[in-house]
Write a structure and sequence with these properties.
6-stranded mixed sheet, 34 helices, single chain, 938 residues, disordered N terminus, alpha+beta
Length: 938
């Protein structure tokens, strides 16, 4: 009998599903009118849990969910960047890195250790108000995970050396470069410095000052840790396959001996009031002018927080928002708009962004935007607008809580900031109680004040303080011998792993022959449906690149006689998401919705798939948006590099940019007939397959699919055929795309492999994971952990149906571009030569690959994706159930052979996106032809 518990297991699931008087399955002319009441959806959002406090002050929250043999461990420290004094900015974030670097009784990378344990949902983050670490592990690995978390909480100082400090400072500098290098990458610094006065805790960015980090001594670092990372300044959440009695025993064993430390009282941070509007214009390599407004407002615990969140949704957050309707769909003077309420612990800001359509008068758009904002402040939202925001928010929260870490985060955040682990309920109930008058009053209080007004225009960046090229390595002022490590019992072993039990797969066929593949997942009351077509970007004709992307955009903006705003309002009222997207090999129309609203949500999906209107005005509007997206891609390192790589490696069906956005001249000229022709050739029942993951069985879902899709007949026109996938003639060289003012270079390298379709990828995938895919891989260990030239570098084999490429992705600091390529060449030669897979790497790949299986399919999106990939690669339904034994049977010889037979570095083409003036001289000694291109030409 399956074990069901947690958020929607058992009674909790019944509560949500039974709360609606009648589940709506029938088709309706007005889908929004059939939506389940928000109050019914709200009633089912519960995270049952218990709490206790250890003698040392550590707060522990336990949420039991026995549906899978996995547990999330989430540790939240009450310290963030707002708590940093002058001269120590960036310390909280630096310590996030240092605490992944190893502890006294577990030296070496924590990410490597946790990945070796099979951890999923693994990361650590720092923000203004907190630092957190989280991982989801199989139940037999829980004790070792708790040992590791307790060791870095109570046994950290002895593991921090000058070498690790310098290494992680270098990594942080490259993290900063990577963010700064993106379009709009410098705006955050300007926002903080203009919204918050000197001395305000929120004035500096979380990544902090590189000068402060450079000046940090070992004495400074030890003091910071001692002041902020004690058990009485932390919260630990255990969520999943564990009960409170077991949790108490384990927490006492591993965390109980850690002594209390100081308690951090979060810095007071009043909401600033600007004396007058602040106007600033910046320039960047961006495709359009962006007009932005920022108001300082109260934080998440303030009585006005719910009203500010509602206001953001109505003004520019919803797809049916005021700004969307007026500027994007109405005047058509903007390509996109957004509004957000960023709520922090002590304060926050409310922002509006309008991205001006190229060719429009930015001053006129700004005046119109300000008029819309002023009207909204004066009149406020309607009851219906509020209801749509609340419904969307509740639906997103239900989806987020499908994952154990989503629930753990909700509990921890409430406990940390509000002293109440049930604060997530308080927030949702406050949203549901908001009235139009409430929002109007709050808007007039806060948005009636002066704002910071930022305009970002296309052009050359102004000078700014870039990260230092290398950490200074400040001298120790306190000798290592000042600290004495405390002994503790040895690290526990990991228990025996259970075999994976992938959800049972059901199949059926609609009356018109469309196959339906489904599984049932009762964790949350939601349904995901993918209507998939054998098309993808590879289906675009070579002289029509971008037509499919335009068709998909237009189909989502008007169908079944409903215009874009009516469709958006219907989706929002239902808490549904309807999407149309593509990968290189498949095109997918997707639906995600609360199951209580499945019927009317399916109506929307069916309209988008079968009955798109393709109105001329809609096509013109989404054309402008796609052209803006193409120009944005042409200004970003990733867009420039990946397009060049695929066009260089491939001819035929894959010889195009992997984003599918296409070419400006094609998209500019495409008309309604082109979109209809593509739709009829590819989006048709004789080219379709439907995938379902739902809390309801296929027997209940199938009649609903039949009524929407069963009578769908293929058009008389011929079904589309794709070009053959072929590789370009190999010409090893370096293509340098000149992107001036780039503090970092993006290095891409690759070749087309003789791997396609049903070819077995498990063994070579494991070998490449050792070489480049894992955090602990040789590539990342060298460029990030050893040399500190990169925030993270990888290589992998792209999962394409046709001949797949091996791709290296290495963003590195600009002054080390040539050295990094030389190092990558040497690493590959070493791995493919005399120094293949080591005994330690073999053990790690066997164990990590087997142990992570338990957490790979925790959420319905992962299960749905696996159903689709199993079909793409023609794998059996139990493929992943068989994978554990196959991973355990891996040998070094098999791994070496698989990679050596496929990967040939002498055939690599290298793409470098960076500042040619800085980079070109570094490439001369590499012995490869160099071809320089302008980013404008790309």
């Amino acid at each position: 009998m399956p074990r069901l518990s947690g958020l929607v297991g058992g009674a909790a699931a019944a509560l949500i599903l039974a709360s609606s008087p009648t589940l709506v399955w029938a088709q309706s002319a007005d889908p929004a009118a059939q939506a389940a009441p928000v109050s019914d959806l709200l009633a089912g959002i519960q995270i049952p849990h218990e709490s206790f406090t250890l003698d040392n002050g550590l707060t522990v929250l336990v949420h039991e969910d026995r549906s899978n043999p996995i547990v999330t461990v989430s540790v939240w420290y009450n310290v963030g960047s707002k708590d940093e004094p002058t001269g120590r900015t960036g310390f909280a974030h630096l310590f996030e890195h240092l605490m992944f670097g190893g502890s006294e009784n577990a030296p070496g990378s924590y990410i490597t250790r946790l990945q070796g344990m099979g951890a999923t949902t693994l990361n650590g983050t720092t923000w203004f108000d907190r630092t957190n670490y989280f991982e989801t592990v199989s139940t037999p690995a829980l004790e070792q995970t708790l040992f590791l978390e307790s060791d870095r909480m109570g046994h950290m100082l002895g593991a921090i050396t000058q070498e690790t400090l310098d290494t992680q400072r270098g990594v942080v500098q490259n993290e900063k470069r990577q963010g700064d290098n993106q379009p709009f990458g410098l705006t955050e610094y300007a926002i903080l410095e203009n919204l918050f006065p000197v001395g305000h805790p929120y004035r500096h960015s979380t990544i902090g000052s590189m000068a402060d980090l450079d000046a940090a001594s070992m004495d400074d670092v030890r003091q910071w840790f001692t002041e902020n990372y004690g058990p009485n300044n932390a919260i630990v959440v255990l969520a999943g396959d564990i009960d409170v009695a077991t949790a108490r025993t384990l927490m006492e064993r591993y965390f109980g001996p850690i002594p209390r430390g100081p308690v951090n009282t979060p810095a007071e941070a009043p909401v600033p009031v600007l004396a007058a509007p602040i106007e600033q214009t910046m320039h960047d390599r961006v495709p359009y002018t962006s007009i932005q407004r920022y108001w300082p407002v109260p934080g998440m615990l303030d009585g006005d927080a719910a009203e500010l969140e509602i206001a953001a949704g109505v003004l520019g957050g919803l797809a049916s928002s005021r700004l969307d309707n007026e500027l994007v769909r109405g005047d058509e003077t903007a390509v996109s708009v957004s509004t957000d309420y960023s709520a922090f612990h002590r304060t926050g800001w409310f922002d509006v962004t309008v991205n001006v359509k190229p060719g429009e008068d930015a001053a006129a758009v700004r005046a119109r935007m300000d008029q819309i904002i002023a009207d909204f402040i004066a009149t406020g939202p309607t009851d219906e607008e509020i209801r749509r925001v609340v419904t969307q928010t509740v639906a997103r929260r239900i989806s987020t809580m499908e994952q154990l870490n989503g629930r753990a985060s909700a509990l921890a955040e409430g406990q940390l900031y509000a002293g109440d682990s049930n604060h997530y309920r308080t927030e949702l109930e406050a949203l549901a109680a908001v009235t139009p008058a409430d929002v109007r009053a709050v808007l007039q209080t806060w948005l009636g004040r002066p704002s910071y007004n930022l305009t970002v225009e296309p052009g050359e960046r102004e000078a700014y303080d870039e990260a230092a090229t290398a950490p200074a390595g400040a001298a120790e002022r306190a000798p290592t011998s000042d600290y004495q490590a405390t002994a503790r019992p040895p690290m526990p072993e990991i228990g025996t792993m259970p075999g994976l039990d992938f959800p049972d797969v059901s199949r059926a066929t609609l009356s018109n022959g469309v196959e339906v593949i489904a599984t049932q997942s009762a964790r949350v009351p939601t349904t995901r449906i993918a209507v998939e077509f054998d098309a993808g970007w590879a289906a675009d004709a070579a002289d029509a690149l971008g037509v499919q992307a335009l068709m998909l955009r237009a189909a989502s903006e008007g169908a079944g006689g409903m215009d874009a705003n009516e469709m958006a309002q219907a989706r929002e009222s239902l808490g549904a998401s309807v999407s149309a997207s593509a990968s290189m090999d498949r095109t997918t129309y997707g639906l995600s919705t609360v199951t209580a609203n499945l019927g009317p949500s399916l109506d929307l999906l069916a309209d988008v798939v079968r009955r798109p209107d393709f109105e001329a005005a809609v096509i013109d509007r989404v054309r402008d948006q796609q052209l803006a997206a193409i120009r944005s891609e042409q200004s970003s390192p990733g867009g420039l590099g990946n397009n060049a790589l695929f066009e260089t490696l491939y001819a035929g069906a894959y010889g195009r940019g992997p984003s599918g956005l296409g070419e400006i001249n094609v998209v500019s000229a495409a008309d309604r007939d082109d979109l209809i022709a593509f739709q009829q050739a590819w989006i048709r029942p004789d080219n379709a397959r439907i995938y379902v993951v739902s809390d309801r069985p296929l027997s209940e879902i199938l009649p609903q699919l039949e009524s929407r899709f069963g009578d769908w007949a293929a058009p008389a026109t011929a079904r589309g055929t794709k070009d053959e996938v072929t590789a370009q003639p190999v010409q090893p060289r370096i293509i340098l795309i000149d992107r001036p003012q780039s503090p970092q270079s993006l290095i891409l390298g690759g070749q087309v492999l003789s791997i396609a379709g049903t070819d077995d990828r498990l063994v070579i995938g494991a070998g490449v994971e050792i070489l480049g895919s894992a955090f602990w891989s040789r590539i990342n260990t060298d460029l990030r952990e050893t040399r500190s030239w990169s925030y993270g570098s990888r290589s992998n084999i792209s999962g394409l149906e046709g001949w797949s490429p091996y791709v290296i992705n290495a963003p590195v600091q600009a002054d080390r571009t040539g050295d990094a390529i030389a190092s990558l060449m040497a690493l590959h030669a070493d791995f493919l030569g005399a120094n293949g897979v080591t005994d330690a790497e073999l053990v790690r790949i066997r164990e990590s690959s087997t142990r992570r299986l338990a957490g790979m399919f925790e959420v319905s999106a992962a299960v749905l994706g696996t159903l689709q990939s199993n079909n793409l690669f023609q794998r059996p339904d139990d493929y992943w159930e068989q994978a554990g034994a196959r991973y355990q049977g891996l040998t070094a010889d098999a791994l070496n052979q698989a990679v050596r037979e496929a990967v040939d570095p002498s055939q690599f083409v290298w793409i470098v996106v960076g500042d040619a003036a800085t980079v070109r001289p570094q490439l001369e000694s590499l012995g490869l032809p160099i071809e320089v291109r302008s980013m404008d030409a790309e």
